[in-house]
Structures are given as C-alpha cells and as structure tokens.
Amino acid sequence: MSIPNPGRIEPVLWDDWHPVAELAALRHGRRLDTGLLGRPLTVTLRADGAIDACSGPHALPHLDTRYGFVWACLGAPVRDIVKFAAADEPDRIPVTGGSMAVAASGLRAVENFLDLGHLGYVHQGYLGEEPHTDIKPYTVGPREGGGIRATGCRVYQPRPSPADTSGYEVDYIYEVHRPYIVVLYKANPVDRTRMDLIALLLQPVSEESCVAHSFMSYPPHDVNEKSVRGFQQLIFGQDRPILENQLPKRLPLDAKAEISVRADSSSAHYRRWLSQLGVRFGAIPQAPA
Amino acid sequence: MNRWFAVARGTEVPRRHVGHYLLLGQELAVWRSDSGAINAWENRCPHRGVRLTLGSCEGEELRCRYHAWRFASVSGQCTLIPAHPGQKPASTVRVRVFAAVEHDGFIWVNLAQGESPTAPTRVAHVLDSTRSIFVDAPLYAVRETLLDGYPVDSTASRLAVWSKDAYCLSAGNPDHAALVTFLLQPVTDFQTVIHGALHTTVEETARLARLRRHNAAMGTVRDEAERRAAAATGGGATA
Q: What's the DSSP call for residue B214?
C-alpha cells in the first residue's frame, strides 16, 4: 500500500506531512499535477468534495487538510501535521498567501525566511531600509518540541505590514518546526501585545525545486485578506529571484562551504540542526570527518 | 589549464555593468572598474552563493544583491558587511578571482590559479571584430571545421597560414599577412563561441564584400561543426 521509496529518502522527511496544494486552488473535477520528495503527485478535488491524491499508480493513504492546505504523507506518519498554538486563539483571522513554485531547494527558502540581513536590501522600503542595516545580537537555541527558535530579533522596518505606513523597530521571533516548515511571529501593528503569525510551508518537490505555500494568522484588527495576500506575494516575489540564483541550489550543511557572520546565527543553527536530524533531501550533507 | 581565452569583446563590458560569461563550464561575473581594471570573478558570493551578476558595480567595488556585501576590484576582498558595519571583514572573506585582461579589443580570462599566467596571444591589428557565433559543438570540432571549411581567400590556395594553436587560429594567403583570426571560447565541453577578427586594410566596398562573405562562411562553418559533433556523439536527433 505504501509508496515506493527507491531513493531511500530519510524517514524524518518521508514519514512526515508536507503541504501539497492550497485548497482554494483546487477546482472540482480538475487535476493538480505536482510532486513531493521526487515522486509525482496528482491531487484531485472530486465533485462530492472529497480530495484524492495519487503518486503514479499508487493512491495516497495519508491525506488531510489544515490551515487551508492539503497535506500528504508518502510513508507512515509518525506524528501529526504541524500545529501553531497561536493560530488556535479563537478570535484570530486565518489567511492563506498562495503558492509559488521556486527553482531552488526548499531548505534555501527556509534559510532565506530566517535571514535578517537581507531585509534592508531585498525588501528595501518594506521590511528594512538603509542606513538601518546593522543586525543586533539575537538569541538562537533549541525550540521546545523540536526545531530551533530565534528570539530578540529587532529590525527597523519602514513598512512592516500592509496595515502600517510608518516605520519603527519591530520584534521578531522565528521558529523552525520541521526541516521545511518555518514560522515568524512579529508584533501586531495595532495591538503590540499580540503577535502576527506568518508561516512559510515548503513543499519539497525535488531536491532543487519546491513550492512555497504561506499561511498567516492575525489578531482581528484591520485585516484585509486581499491586501495581506498581495503583500505576502509582493515580499516573496522579491525573494524568489534571489533563491533561484543561489549556487549550489541545494543547501550546503558544511559550515565551511559558505562564509557566515554573527548575523547568520540562525542560519548556522538551522544547518547544524538539519545535520543532526540527518536531513539529506535538498541539502549537501557535511563530508564525513 | 594555464591558457588565456577570449570571452568577450571589450566593448561588451562597459563601465557600471556586470556581465555573465561561461568558460569551460565556469560561470564568470565580468566587470570593469571605473579606473579601468577588468575583473573576471567566480559568479558566486562567498557568503550565501548568490550570483554576483545580480549585483551592481559601484566604481571600484562590486555589491552583492542579497546582503550588499562589497568586494574590491582586482583582489575580490570584502570591504564591507552592512550587517556589521563597524567590523573590518576578515581577509578570508573574498570572492574567487581569475586573471583577466583587455588585450587587442578582447577580454581575456585565464582560469589557472596560483601560478603567474603568461600573457594572452597577440592578435594582430584588428580592423573589424566580427559577430561572435555560438556553436553547439566542442572546441575540437569547431577548430577542425574552420581549418577545413573556412574559405581563406577566393583566389589564393586555401589555407596558407594557419597557426597551430587550438583556440587562436589565424589564416591568410601566402602574399599577405593574416586576413582573419578566430578566437575560440570553449563555453562548456560541448559549446563553443567563435570570436572573429578581420585584418588588413582594404577599400570600403571590398571591405563590405568581405564581411558579407565572412558572414556567409560562418553560417556554413557552424552548421558543419554541429553536424560533425552530432555524428561524433552518435546523436543528431535533429537533422
């Protein structure tokens, strides 16, 4: 019954859940052809509303929905689909940000999402601006429940969200929950005691290509779904050409492969954590010592 | 390989521009500093691997598009990391650079590292540098085809003087100095660019006739080189 795994992809990815389609993008009776972990994948929304998926001749036994996306597991699921506690707060407004195909490893996309130093350049005028380019020290450590967590990130932002037109220094918390799942919490511009949640959910299509899905959850102040979606797509559209021009396309896990500085602390922790987990798909593993 | 190859004409690399070239499969970011130095760098920022051809040339420095790290002309040494503006970047933070010069109207690059590379081949006075031709064939097939098939002169016996070099071929007839020089750029193992230069001064009408003849000949040379390359690999899916 299970999907063949000829590439012997590591269980930490094979037996996990991955996003494969945004629900809103499915049309009755229409197939969505995509891929997951090097296998072909077809998702179909049947006329009765049920969702099917198959990989070649094999029907997918493990399929579910959460946060406005279809999730699939090719192996034997050993844990639940990722869950963001803050998104469960009853008054929050969930918004999906769509799906964008990227010709780069999804691990590169996660690392870029964690990256503070590019905000003032790639997202100049929105998430950063010269001369506010210096990155102050922040703290990175293990996240309770697995993954890593970066706190105390402070960035001057001229236009941190679509609801905001004036700049100020914004607090960020980043969490990597799974190798291909990363979430960012930033202070809400209206109620600064609460945090906006912005999650980037990467679908590892092949080692060198992915689909970036995004999910947001906001406290109920001035949330305009259309403008939130548009903003998210504008920002990610600025990242995509960078991601597609990184060489190599897979993420090198050897600390000596690329030069890092203190501002890259979360990237260094992320790469080390991936090494410890034994993640190989989408990565260039460390050479054995 | 300690050899110089022409990768572009000098006019293709104006100031404040970063050009993307390929030599023997090595991606290059080629740029000219305001003071005139020619740089041919590995097309990859040492920080997070972003192509430097996305970056911008700012006089004597190239700035990476991703985090705006700055790298100095000639040395490739990092001069500024904006995330830590108060700290001087370590001497190990540098782009991998290749030897590059502008010589006789062409940009020449030598991929050899460590040794002091010898000077590039002299190209005699260039009258017209001609359109560069992209050929889907390895360098040896292009070279053979040029030796066999380029009409050196309509009247003289074909091929009087060919230099022996694999990548700089000059040809003429016994009564003249070189008429034409080809500079071969092995882009990859199966793609070659033919840069050409026509020599000797002739009258304007004769010159135009020669350029036309050259252009027609190059079309024939390309087709023939691609046919040979396809035959050699047993491929040739397209006729």
A: H
What is the pLDDT at residue B165?
64
Other C-beta atoms closer than 10 Å to the C-beta of A253 total 21
Enumerate the residues of chain B whose CB falls inside 8 A of the CB of residue A130. Answer: 82
* CA angle at B222 for the pair B216 and B227, rounded to the nearest 5°: 130
- Alpha-carbon dihedral of residues B224, B109, B177, B217, nearest 10 degrees? 20
The residues, ordered by sequence, that sit 6+ positions from B15 with a Cβ below 8 Å of its Cβ are B32, B33, B34, B57
Bridge partner residues of A142 (DSSP):
A148
Domains in chain B with CATH codes = 4-110 (2.102.10.10), 128-232 (3.30.530.20)
In this structure, what CATH number is given to the domain that contains residue A275?
3.90.380.10
Digit-coded pLDDT (tens) for B152-180: 654 444 444 556 566 777 766 545 555 77
Residues of A in contact with B86 (CB under 8 A): 134
Tokens of A102: 């990227």
Residue with tokens 């404040």: B16
Structurally, how many domains does chain A consist of? Answer: 2
Residues A51 and A171 in one domain: no
Tell me: pLDDT of B66 over 80. Answer: yes
Q: How far is B82 from chain A (nearest CA, A)?
A: 6
* Terminal C-alpha separation, chain A: 39
A16 and A132 share one domain: no
pLDDT digits (tens, 9 = 90+) for A50-89: 999 999 999 998 999 999 999 999 999 999 999 999 999 9
Q: Among residues B22, B43, B27, B4, which one has the least CA distance to residue B166?
A: B4
Among the candidates A73, A96, A124, a domain finishes at A73
ipTM metric: 0.94
Alpha helices in chain A (DSSP H): 11-14, 106-114, 119-122, 225-243, 265-277
Residue A222, pLDDT above cutoff 80? no
Query: Is B85 within 8 Å of chain A by CB?
Result: yes
Do A230 and A98 share a structural domain? yes
Residue B62 CA to residue A246 CA, distance in Å, equals 17
Full domain range(s) for residue A116: 85-284
